[in-house]
Amino acid sequence: MNKRVLQIFSFIMVLALALTGCAAPAAPATGGEAAAPAEEAAPGDLPRNETLYVGGLQWGPFITFNPVAPQITWPNGETMLIYEALFGYNVATGEIDPLLAESFTMVDETTMEITLHEGTTWQDGEPLTTEDVIFTFELGKTNTDLDISTFWDYVTEMTAVDERTLQIKLNPERLNVGQVKHFLTRTSPVIPKHIWEERATGDTPISQFVEENPIGSGPYQVLDYSTERVALQRFDDYWGKDLFGLPAPKYIVHPIFDSNDTGNLAFQQGRVDLSQQFAPQIWQMWEDQGLPVGTWFKEPPYHLPGNIPMLHINIHKPGLDNVLVRKALAYSINYAQIAETAMSRYSDPAQPSLIIPSGGEGALFNAEQVAELGWEYNPEEAVRILEEDLGATKGSDGIYVLPDGTRLGPWKVLACYGWTDWMTAVELVAQNAQEIGIDITTEFPEAPVATARRNAGDFDMIIWTHTGASPASPWARFRDALDIRGVPPMGEVAFWNWNRFEHPDVPALLDQVAASSDLEEQKALYSELDKIYLENIPTIPLMYRPLEFYEFNESVWTGFANADNPVAPPQQNYGGIRGYFVIQPK
Amino acid sequence: MSKFQRYLVNKLLWFILAFCIALVLNFLLPRLIPGNPVDTIVAQMSAGGGVSGPALEKLYNSYIAEFGLDQPLWKQFLIYLGNLSRGDLGTSFAQSPARVQRLVSEALPWTIALMLPAILVGWIVGNTLGALAGYKGGWLDRIVFPTSLFVSSIPYYCLAIILLYLFAVEFDIAPTGGGYGYDKSPSLTIPFIIDVLRHYWLPFLAQATIFIGGQAVGMRAMSIYELDADYVRFARGLGVSDNRITAYIFRNAMLPQVTGLALSIGGLVSGGLISEIVFSYPGIGTLLFKAIRTSDYPVIQGITLVVMVGVLTANFIVDIAYGFIDPRIRAKASGES
Fold it and tell me: What ipTM, to 2 d.p.?
């Protein structure tokens, strides 16, 4: 009996092993299928000292390399390694840097002239000319689901003077050079007409085309892709090699991590060289662990600020419709604590202004006015406003009630579930408000739910950001925050100004500042707009967030740019690819 | 028509009815999730603050039309049925323009390769251990029973995380996640296969362990129950050999376990969800999880369809198989008793 059982048992174990043995190799076959276009597929490992691993720019498996699709697999769309835009937006200077285009001049107030670099060529050897550029932008005329369709709100005509020179006629009704510059950078990588012309006329919308073998003009081509990574290989006949040189890494690989944590661990272990992930308390990596890790600044805030997550207040709810209540709330919030904990020191304490005080917008920031009309963390002042200015009295539950009987709360502040920095920030806001006697609690719906409620104005308070730093900022941010034109009433879907703020002076001021090309005039106009903002407090800035986190680990590659050695801006997106050219293997 | 045939037809009709109801639910339930898939796409595009409001508005409207979300629900359902009858699962919303077929067929082999061997090994080893423990008792039972009970009672995600911590972080003999190393190009070469296996064994171990525990506990209880049954005593009294009796017991105790096996295989597609999330393993579970969080109706529908067909078919087969394995059921169905 025993022997028999043992026999059965051992047979089963052998069978089990055989089964697992058989099943496991089935897996790579599927991975292999997914990885279709390996032109020079290098089986096995890529040499580590020729491969740059980057992270934080691609989170799901491959969708498409089509640069006009709504979701584009890295590197297309933002990182100009395969397709290139005319210019790159430089997050350090706020200027636009030449990429495909050599220069940009204003012939007169409404005419822009752009010259392409000599010798621009597609990876298949065809010349890249103004015809390709015009083709790309004109796609926006017929395809309203493309990002660039809005380009034609600001531009009436785009014509080729010759193969190298373009002329853009601006719409005099909506004169806005910044917004047009914005379209010349990140949103519109130029695509080859000789390949895409046919695709643009088919039945399937061009945004739905699944591109697997992209032919661009940039210094890299796709090597392979799968559920685990996207790998690029350098294109050594890059048209710009005499002008810019060639980027150092022969291969660039973007592993697809399922969470920040796995990505951050890989970065810490030196298995990722350049990361764009939120990595909390990164200074510990060099201060405590002695790792060769760095960020743009060696000191807080470590990163360049790029946008302003704000507390959007529903200014049409009883209680919150009172600007003094909003002011008391603004005084109650501990901005330094939010910067320290929610943003892990990657932010200076938020200033009461729609302008980012440093970086490209810094010149427009009116510090005196902000000091005079703004607010800061001061709970005593908050209480004073509530009690003296408003005449509110504290109920038995510790919450203030206005003289007309309106209780300050219960209000909910929303943040998307899983967006941890925002969740922490609003948690602190609620705590601070409770401490002075305003009843605020938090609610964390899933992102699609929060978005829908934001658009419909269905919130008491919600944390969100406006348009970030770009060639069009801070104009776009002021428009997003203050302009009621084109915003439907509460309950319908709005795409900016979610709390439907309205002020009679704003539209004219916005149009004036958009058309202005004089820095002093711009500064004056923005100050006036910022004054309206400070007097009405429709939103409260909570912190600054970089457009992109820039973290490098020099275990394998060295020479990454930083604030002390600014040979390239701290970015992988928005057309800033110079960073790949300045590094060298250790 | 014999009574057994009638039994078969009856089961088949139930199968079809359940399939139709499930199909409706399949379509309806994802749409009951608050929030709208286009909002997700638009939110993602605006997250960095790069795309301007008016552009988002245009995008929003064209996507609502493109995905057919402006149509009344009954019309959307008819379109869904029409596409389904052509074997077309549609285009993902959140990962537009990726086809649902492609997403599912890319993920499915990973899940099957992980779950099927784990279920089979777990089932076979677990039942053998359980039967041994129940039948032999003594020291074997004292080891197997509490261990199995412990393993099958701790929440699976805890077990998975503990294993991950022990083997991947503390001992550092397994990777922390993924289907294979991202420094490898997928190819049918020995180093790559070794790398896949290196990533495979830990999630497999976790999944199989939990199965072994559950099956062993169930099988042990059944064996002990059967040991006490009248027919065993009777057989003993008749002096039937031990081996013979064990065979009887094994066959009888097996019945509920077979059901369990069939259902596990039927549900294996969704069974790997936690494993896949904890071990960052590619597969259907993670795909479904992501799709639900982004209200990606076509992907949710596509996956639940696969799960549904799996579970229903497994149930159907179990129903039929029972007729063969267990004469009592067949007898009852055909009115012999």
Answer: 0.71
